[in-house]
Q: What sequence folds into this?
């Protein structure tokens, strides 16, 4: 009977196979471990790079912000002066907007006798204000104030800022700790010229708008402004002047006469205000006086400075307005320059009546206007300085 002898595998063989198998599994497992480690290291490196980039970006942003803060900090006095000056001008002109418009109308209309038959002439201050309210209401009082504020914001800001800059330059040049009277007047004159040159076209357009909507201008079909022109806004009036009166030259009509008049006015304004303030508001008073008293004294200084300056410089203001509306043929003769205007006024109306036309409403306007301007300027400037120190 045949026998079947099955050879059993030895234990060593099993162990060897198992060992090989285990080694294979371990080697495979090590591959996974190494791969996971590589991924972990790569992810960590990538994360670090991203974080580093973000930190670099944040540092750049902080660096720019820090530089801007440093610049603003170094120039905080100039920035505060610019902002306070602009707000002072806007506040002062809005307060007296009806009187500002009436002053322009009285300055540029023909003499009362020449137009009395047409019923177009404006007379006394209160009568004229009543007529303005009756015909146009609140909008009549504020007519032209929008462009006036647009003009006065940069004008007043540049005026106050330029005055400080000129004082600083002149102080360095002269070596004087406290500027002498001539140098202070020079600083004021320079500030006035800078402000006028920068904003004159807006002033001219504002004057045209005030007159074109007053009821006196809708009379002529041969030239000047018509009933449709009275509806023009700031942009429309600017385009009309530019198109019909010689471009930029038309927008700067009467600029030099304005600068000549404004320069002494601004000089006297600053000089008289600072002089009055040193007498009426000495530093010792701020420790003992009440807040309402200090406010009244500040307003008083500004009011006296404005009124006094105006008496000396009002003829230049009349001259400026006459030149600004010279393109309106039915409003006044066509002048050949400032000297021609002065000759015509003196010949036909006399010096005092002609050159000081509109003085009363101008005084009524300027007195509170300058008072509010200086008070607002100093209040806003001090407030901004206090905020900056916190």
A:
């Amino acid at each position: 009977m045949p026998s079947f002898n099955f050879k059993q595998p030895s234990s060593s063989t099993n162990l060897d196979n198992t060992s090989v198998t285990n080694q294979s599994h371990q080697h495979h497992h090590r591959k996974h471990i190494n791969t996971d480690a590589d991924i972990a290291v790569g992810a960590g490196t990538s994360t670090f790079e991203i974080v580093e980039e973000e930190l670099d970006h944040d540092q750049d942003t902080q660096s720019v912000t820090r530089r801007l803060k440093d610049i603003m900090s170094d120039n905080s006095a100039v920035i505060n002066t610019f902002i306070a000056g602009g707000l002072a001008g806007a506040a002062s002109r809005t307060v007296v907007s009806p009187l500002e418009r009436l002053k322009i109308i009285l300055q540029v209309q023909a003499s009362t006798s020449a137009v009395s038959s047409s019923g177009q002439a404006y007379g006394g201050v209160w009568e004229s204000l009543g007529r303005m309210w009756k015909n146009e209401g609140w909008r009549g009082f504020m007519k032209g104030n929008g462009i006036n504020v647009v003009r006065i914001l940069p004008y007043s800001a540049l005026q106050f800022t330029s005055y400080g800059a000129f004082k600083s330059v002149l102080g360095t040049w002269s070596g004087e700790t406290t500027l002498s009277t001539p140098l202070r007047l020079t600083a004021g004159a320079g500030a006035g010229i800078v402000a006028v040159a920068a904003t004159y076209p807006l002033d001219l357009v504002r004057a045209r708008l005030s007159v074109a909507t007053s009821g006196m201008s809708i009379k002529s079909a041969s030239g000047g402004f018509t009933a449709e022109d009275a509806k023009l806004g700031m942009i429309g009036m600017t385009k009309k002047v530019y198109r019909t009166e010689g471009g930029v030259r038309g927008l700067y009509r009467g600029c030099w006469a304005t600068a000549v008049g404004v320069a002494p006015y601004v000089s006297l304004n600053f000089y008289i205000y600072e002089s009055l303030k040193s007498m009426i508001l000495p530093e010792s008073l701020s420790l003992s006086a009440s807040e309402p008293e200090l406010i009244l004294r500040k307003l008083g200084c500004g009011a006296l400075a404005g009124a006094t300056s105006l008496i000396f410089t009002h003829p230049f203001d009349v001259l400026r307005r006459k030149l600004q509306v010279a393109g309106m043929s039915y409003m006044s003769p066509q002048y050949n320059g400032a000297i021609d205007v002065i000759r015509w006024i003196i010949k036909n109306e006399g010096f005092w009546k002609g050159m000081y036309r509109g003085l009363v409403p101008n005084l009524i306007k300027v007195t509170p206007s300058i008072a509010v301007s200086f008070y607002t300027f100093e209040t806003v400037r001090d407030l901004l300085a206090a905020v900056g120190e916190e």
